[in-house]
Specification:
Blueprint lengths: L3 E5 L3 H12 L3 E5 L8 H7 L3 E3 L2 H5 L3 E4 L6 H7 L7 E4 L6 E2 L2 E2 L9 H8 L4 E4 L6 H5 L3 E2 L2 E9 L2 H14 L2 E4 L5 H6 L11 E2 L2
Parallel strand pairs: 1-2, 1-4, 2-3, 4-5, 5-8, 10-11
Antiparallel strand pairs: 6-7, 8-10, 9-10, 10-12
Bound molecules: NADP nicotinamide-adenine-dinucleotide phosphate (NAP).
Length: about 200
């Protein structure tokens, strides 16, 4: 399942997810705003199974990770003709500015993940990987005391199950925190589960 993972973004979160995916035997296609030519060195460092692509090539995967600035999601959405049938993992945080990250984007009463889902009609969205710093996401999730928990939220039970199986294959323990409204609110910036580290004993 999910033999190829498309990643939009090539920064620290993208690289952390890519390394876990490669270790778990998946192929990854990384993309960014500057094009595949700018990713030659990174994919060489990542090794076998890592490929550079355009946003469209990364988005062609059944599972796509959004590891790019929240405010740029509409730009990426516009580059892809059809998001139907794609499971999208939303790792963004709703900063108003991305260079450097600062402020909060005003999206009314929506959670950040509900807003991202609205930008990608047809996609099924799971919110995850946004709630911890990339260095903790990159670290080995298996500790003597237990496995690092990755919280996730979504409105589609099948998609959440598939995401849970994926992160379990990376070594994490997945914990479902509900729908994009309630769970998304817990995970996003200023949410009660944001930046919270939990280990599962088994
Ligand atoms: N860093 C963390 O610790 C952390 C933790 C949790 C969540 N997050 C969230 O995860 C996301 C990524 O953060 P990051 O720190 O890993 O990355 P980052 O260093 O901010 O880099 C952003 C990446 O997104 C790409 N990008 C920007 N606009 C794009 C577009 N229109 N099309 C395609 N790619 C585009 C950039 O490509 P170019 O370089 O070519 O412009 C770059 O590779 C953000 O939403 C952030 O809030 C970050």
């Amino acid at each position: 399942m999910f033999s190829t993972i498309g990643i939009i973004g090539s920064g620290p979160v993208a690289q952390a997810v890519a390394r876990h995916a490669l270790k778990a035997g998946r192929r990854v296609v990384l993309s960014n705003s500057r094009g595949p030519g700018s990713l030659t060195e990174l994919v060489a460092q990542l090794g076998d199974g890592a490929h550079a692509g355009t946003v469209q090539e990364a988005a062609a995967a059944e599972l796509v990770v959004l590891a790019m600035p929240f405010t740029k999601v509409p730009d990426v959405a516009a580059e892809v003709a059809d998001w139907s049938g794609h499971l999208v993992i939303d790792a963004t945080n709703q900063f108003a500015e991305s260079d450097p990250y600062d402020g909060r984007a005003d999206i009314g009463e929506l959670t950040g993940s509900e807003w991202v889902a609205q930008q990608l009609p047809g996609a099924v969205l799971v919110k995850a990987f946004n709630a911890m710093y990339s260095k903790y996401l990159a670290a080995d999730p298996v500790h003597d005391e237990g496995r690092q928990v990755v919280f996730y939220a979504g409105n589609d039970a099948d998609a959440k199950q598939q995401f849970a199986e994926l992160v379990e294959s990376f070594g994490f323990a997945g914990v479902d925190v509900g729908a994009l409204r309630e769970g998304g609110a817990l995970l996003q910036l200023d949410g009660h589960l944001n930046a919270l580290h939990v280990l599962r004993q088994s």
